[in-house]
Inverse folding.
């Protein structure tokens, strides 16, 4: 036994505390240690291990950062082969499956464990006396690759089991890259000009195949258990669903969607339920899995070749399909971003038919080398815009001499909408039309953004009217909106209806409805009384969203000092870095933009201005506050504004970065989370006292 305050005892204690924290965070989803505290304890452990190498352990929480590379992966023969699953693509196949089981087991209403079928990489983890000893890929089912060092970096894989562990335990499951992490990763990769991952499954597989575990440690991977391999020294429960519950107790993540269902109707209802939630799940799934729950019934059903007759994968529509590129086009966005995309032969993917898929940017086009006539793999997952993930090269059309029929695609050097030059800033991935306020493509978008609810909030100014206003040349800049009359709108609509063949019967009969136009003109008039932050946001300066507009307005108090501020002065504003500062300065340096602002002012657009309120100077400078629940004496929005006036940043979600939480009546989960994180919690009385004390 180590002495109470010996390094050995402290190392053991730190490992215990850190393992417990990981378990609560990853398995129970109930974090108990704040991140800085976790990091502090981990650092202390790493320092002790460095000072006392004899105390090192391959399963220490410090090993999550990844060991040094060790060359090739060794082969691991699976003691119990890793099986594959039979597939069903229709309800009838599920009916056949259940009927077969009914016939052979004599059970009319068999119970199944029902599980999502995760789209990742199948792996097997081996534990001896509760300690992780090896992890391997599935390979061909009989033997896979030893990827232990990489698996150690996956934080939700336990390195030591909880409670009474069997002598030997092999656990099978799936390593996945959660969708949100995948999207974040790819966005960052594209911004850097790096190669994005084709899909989360490739992301997971590619990450586990890294020869340097320190690289894997940087990848956002998760693990979910779904089956057992070899087991020694434990008596298993009689059903698979109870085994999953036991695995959870031992410290393994098990998907929250696992359930049990009875008979065909139960299975099909599960399929529908999970299918409806597919997009909302944190990871990609390609179907659901049904497994006969009772082990005695599983044994009775047995196997055919490598697939159990007691289990079935019921697949969802594929999220990736092949189709042929008809042409490559570009779209010019509100900020002038030139985005290439492909027009394709219609293809059914992810449950809908699509004809367009994005190519994101010129780098991606070059990387993929997509050409007209190519067969491409298109991916559509959830709400994400369909994208081309790769070209099937051996299907590329060739000429008589065996050379590609079409040359590599080049992004146009002139804007297809206005003919202005297309440029790409140094270090930027996106190419842009330089036509700014002149480019009709940007004009429509600029007007649409200008009139939107969070900007100038002009009711009734929808996309169709904006497009017509621009097309028929009623407006060239946003300031022109304020010159429009009821007659202009009525005339514009008449022309739009005529062109689109949508002239209403009443108009044909000589009656012209004008109420809508009067309302629209009144809406435009009403938008003149605005606020500085709304106007700033409405100008559509790149990267100036609502939050930045708000901080700019607060920091400077008035528009003129913002227009005159140089990049250095702009960088004094919280959240404004060098890039955004440059964009703001360039925007206001552009004479055309200044003309539009002058025209807006001349048209009567106005807003309240005040003294600068520097966030860095208030008593709450640098603090992040969350408001939750109802307040009796003011709205949450008002409270937020008063706190912001004292330098606070108001956030909608509680995290370890939150400085304190103001909790009103009926505060719910945010308050609970704040308590869990041990944050300071203010009631309304304390808030009011503080605001009053500081003149708010
Ligand atoms: N959820 C789940 N996925 N999955 C994949 N269960 C499951 N079971 C599998 C596979 C290959 O194989 C069993 C036969 C153990």
């Amino acid at each position: 036994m180590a002495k109470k305050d010996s390094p050995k005892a402290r190392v053991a204690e730190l490992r215990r505390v850190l393992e417990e924290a990981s378990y609560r965070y990853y398995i129970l989803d109930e974090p108990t240690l704040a991140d800085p505290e976790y990091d502090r304890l981990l650092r202390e452990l790493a320092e002790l291990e460095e000072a006392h190498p004899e105390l090192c352990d391959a399963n220490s929480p410090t090993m999550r950062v990844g060991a040094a590379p060790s060359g090739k992966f060794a082969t691991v023969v699976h003691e119990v082969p890793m099986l594959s699953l039979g597939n069903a693509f229709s309800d009838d196949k599920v009916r056949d499956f259940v009927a077969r089981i009914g016939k052979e087991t004599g059970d009319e209403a068999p119970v199944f464990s029902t599980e999502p079928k995760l789209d990742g990489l199948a792996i097997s983890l081996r534990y001896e006396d509760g300690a992780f000893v090896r992890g391997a890929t599935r390979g061909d089912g009989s033997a896979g690759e030893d990827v232990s060092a990489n698996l150690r970096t996956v934080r939700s894989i336990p390195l030591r089991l909880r409670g009474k562990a069997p002598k030997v335990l092999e656990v099978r499951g799936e390593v996945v890259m959660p969708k949100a992490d995948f999207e974040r990763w790819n966005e960052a990769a594209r911004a850097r000009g790096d190669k994005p991952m084709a899909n989360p499954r490739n992301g997971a597989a590619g990450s586990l195949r890294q020869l340097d575990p320190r690289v894997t440690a940087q990848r956002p991977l998760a693990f979910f258990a779904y089956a057992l391999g070899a087991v020694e020294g434990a008596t298993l429960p009689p059903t698979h669903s109870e085994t999953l519950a036991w695995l959870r107790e031992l410290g393994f993540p098990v998907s929250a969607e696992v359930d049990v269902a009875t008979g065909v109707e139960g299975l099909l209802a599960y399929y529908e339920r999970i299918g409806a939630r597919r997009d909302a799940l944190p990871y990609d799934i390609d179907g659901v899995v049904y497994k006969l729950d009772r082990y005695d019934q599983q044994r009775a059903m047995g196997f055919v070749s490598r697939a159990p007759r007691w289990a079935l994968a019921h697949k969802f529509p594929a999220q990736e399909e092949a189709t042929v590129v008809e042409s490559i086009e570009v779209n010019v966005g509100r900020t002038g971003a030139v985005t290439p995309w492909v027009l394709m032969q219609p293809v059914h993917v992810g449950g809908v038919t699509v004809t367009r898929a994005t190519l994101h940017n010129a780098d991606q086009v070059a990387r993929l080398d997509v050409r007209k006539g190519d067969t491409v793999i298109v991916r559509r997952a959830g709400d994400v815009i369909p994208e081309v993930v790769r070209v099937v090269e051996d299907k590329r059309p060739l000429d008589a001499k065996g050379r590609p029929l079409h040359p590599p695609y080049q992004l146009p050097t002139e804007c297809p909408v206005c003919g202005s030059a297309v440029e790409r800033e140094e270090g930027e991935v996106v190419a842009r039309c330089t036509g700014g306020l002149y480019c009709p493509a940007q004009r429509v978008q600029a007007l649409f953004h200008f009139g939107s609810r969070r900007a100038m909030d002009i009711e009734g100014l929808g996309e169709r009217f904006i497009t017509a206003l621009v097309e028929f040349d009623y407006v060239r800049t946003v300031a022109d909106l304020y010159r429009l009359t009821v007659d202009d709108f009525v005339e514009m609509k008449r022309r739009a209806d005529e062109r689109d063949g949508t002239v209403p019967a009443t108009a044909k009969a000589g009656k012209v409805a004008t109420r809508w136009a009067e309302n629209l003109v009144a809406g435009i008039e009403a938008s003149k009384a605005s606020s500085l932050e709304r106007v700033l946001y409405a100008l559509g300066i790149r990267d100036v969203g609502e939050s930045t507009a708000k901080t700019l307005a607060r920091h400077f108090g008035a528009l003129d000092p913002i227009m005159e501020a140089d990049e250095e002065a702009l960088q004094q504003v919280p959240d404004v870095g060098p890039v955004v500062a440059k964009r703001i300065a360039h925007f206001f340096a552009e004479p055309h933009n200044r003309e539009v602002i002058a025209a807006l002012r001349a048209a009567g657009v106005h807003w309240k201005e005040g003294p600068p309120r520097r966030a860095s100077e208030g008593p709450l400078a640098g603090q992040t506050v969350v408001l939750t629940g109802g307040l009796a004496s003011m709205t949450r929005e008002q409270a937020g504004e008063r706190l912001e006036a004292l330098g606070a940043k108001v956030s909608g979600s509680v995290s370890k970065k939150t400085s304190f939480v103001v909790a009103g009546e009926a505060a719910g989960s945010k308050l609970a989370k704040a308590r869990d994180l041990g944050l300071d919690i203010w009631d309304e009385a304390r808030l009011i006292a503080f605001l009053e004390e500081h003149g708010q």
Observations:
- The chain has a mean pLDDT of 91.
